[in-house]
Design goal:
Strand order of the largest sheet: 1-2-3-4-5-6-7-8
Number of helices: 1
Distance between the termini: 74 Å
Structural class: alpha+beta
Strand content: 35-45%
Order of helices and strands: HEEEEEEEE
Radius of gyration: 23 Å
Number of strands: 8
Number of domains: 2
Helix content: 10-25%
CATH architecture of the largest domain: Beta Barrel
Largest sheet: 8 strands, antiparallel, barrel
Oligomer: single chain
Length: about 120
């Protein structure tokens, strides 16, 4: 009997140790940055057709656009190829990382049909 309880205790201790290590390994995992812009330089600014201009901040699978047409919080969508990312809400769809340099974007306003091509400053 003592031999069985000793094996159980050793097994439980091994399992607890493995769980602790797995927890520690997961703590250092950081999400990749959506934008290579440093915090001190501010969010990227895009100038678009139709005289639109906006800034965008990326965090936690969202893009927050601030511009003359108001602020929009967009959620990350499936889609895009390579470095291209797509975000949307019921009012707006935005694609980032377009063009050879990756500095181009397209805004597509859904309620008032309007599409504007943009370039990051």
């Amino acid at each position: 009997m003592k031999q069985h309880s000793g094996k159980r205790m050793a097994c439980a201790m091994t399992l607890a140790g493995l769980l602790a290590l797995a927890g520690c390994a997961g703590m250092n995992r950081s999400a990749p940055l959506e934008s290579p812009v440093s915090a001190s330089s501010g969010p990227p600014v895009y100038a678009c057709e139709q005289n639109l201009k906006f800034s965008v901040s990326f965090a936690n699978d969202t893009a927050v656009l601030k511009g003359a047409r108001g602020d929009d919080v967009l959620l990350r969508d499936a889609g895009g190829q390579g470095a291209q990312t797509v975000y949307s809400n019921p009012r707006l769809r935005a694609e980032f990382g377009l063009g050879a340099s990756g500095r181009e974007a397209v805004l597509q306003y859904l309620q008032q049909p309007l599409m504007a091509r943009c370039l990051r400053d």
